[in-house]
Amino acid sequence: MSNIVTRIKLYAEANSKVANFGGDRNVIVSDLGDGDGVKITKWEIEGLSKPTDTQLNSYETEATTLENNAKIDAKRQTEYLSWQEQFEMIYKDQKNGTTTYKDHCDKVRSDNPKG
């Protein structure tokens, strides 16, 4: 199951609003230890009603995809190498007519496909 924060962000965005969970918070989620799990404990998004569980659950598939893709992006970042190494590959490819950089990027992407 996706994180409630992701589903709240999607709900807000679908209604042309922004849910802020840090700094200038307009939404807070908490687990009150009552067995109901994480719930919205503060909702102050002007012009937007607090969503029902059904409304939030309608974003489950999209939220799960976003979260999974974020994990894949993070993994790809570690495998792409530093920007200095990437520029060196690009330079050598242009100088030598090779495709080392493209091949490297293709391998990182194929090793870490998005859903």
Could you explain how this protein is built, in words?
The protein is mainly α and 115 residues long. It folds into two domains: 1-70, no CATH class; 80-115, no CATH class. It is built from five helices and two strands. It has helices at residues 4-14, 53-57, 60-79, 83-96, 100-111, and strands at residues 27-31, 38-43. Strands 1-2 form a two-stranded antiparallel sheet. A hairpin with a 6-residue loop joins strand 1 (27-31) and strand 2 (38-43). The model has no long low-confidence stretch (mean pLDDT 94).
Quick description:
This protein is mostly helical and 115 residues long. The chain is 54% helix and 10% strand.
Note the quaternary state here: single chain
State the share of residues found in helices, binned by percent. 40-55%
Radius of gyration: 21 Å
Total strands: the figure is 2
Query: What overall form do the CA principal axes indicate?
Result: elongated
The poorly predicted ranges are none
Distance between the termini: 16 Å
Largest sheet composition: 2 strands, antiparallel
Structural class designation? mainly alpha
* Biggest sheet: strand arrangement: 1-2
How many structural domains can be distinguished in the coordinates?
2
